[in-house]
Write a structure and sequence with these properties.
The protein is an alpha+beta fold. The chain contains 4 helices and 5 strands. The protein has a 5-stranded mixed sheet, sandwiched between helices. Helix 1 (19-29) packs across helix 2. The longest helix has 15 residues, at 97-111. The radius of gyration is 15 Å and the shape is globular. The relative contact order is 0.14. GO terms for molecular function: acyltransferase activity, transferring groups other than amino-acyl groups. This is GNAT family N-acetyltransferase. It comes from Cognatilysobacter lacus. Keywords: Acyltransferase, Transferase.
Length: 150
């Protein structure tokens, strides 16, 4: 369990019981999710030792989350960390929550021996791009995706 810092933000690992707090955060990020779906997603993360899901709290209320995974990069020949989700509740933006979540996952990645951490943000998320750049993240390669449906 992580300690609360002087800014009043407490960062901790998520548990299944946090599903009702995680679901609206996923919704705010643009990924529709109900409590049961959030519980399933949290369970998947908890069952994988190379993933983490951290929650930020202010005054005991969940106000943000970050998911990360560690993986070996064949191209780089080293461990790499990837932020899989980062969101701050709209009412808690501009209070340092996002920066604290980034610092936590960066620390976890360093401890795990990762040489690099990456994050993607949709082209339409200009505020996210500005945020990541202000936190020391550089523009990198383009990200391509293809849905594999029926």
């Amino acid at each position: 369990m992580m300690q609360e810092s002087s800014d009043g933000i407490r960062i901790r690992d998520a548990s299944i019981g946090d599903a009702s707090d995680v679901a609206p955060l996923l919704e705010a990020l643009g990924y529709p999710c109900d409590r049961d779906g959030a519980a399933d997603r949290i369970a998947a993360v908890l069952s994988d030792p190379r993933q983490r899901l951290l929650l930020a709290e202010i005054a005991g209320h969940v106000c943000g989350m970050v998911g990360m995974e560690l993986r070996y990069s064949l191209a780089r020949g080293a461990e790499q960390a990837r932020i899989t989700a980062l969101v701050v509740a709209p009412a808690c933006e501009r209070q340092g929550v996002g920066r604290r979540l980034l610092r936590e996952v960066e620390g976890i990645a360093r401890q795990a021996g990762a040489a690099r951490i990456e994050v993607t943000a949709a082209g339409s998320r200009g505020n996210a791009h500005t945020f990541y750049r202000s936190c020391g993240y550089d523009d990198a390669s383009l990200h391509f995706a293809k849905l594999l449906g029926d």
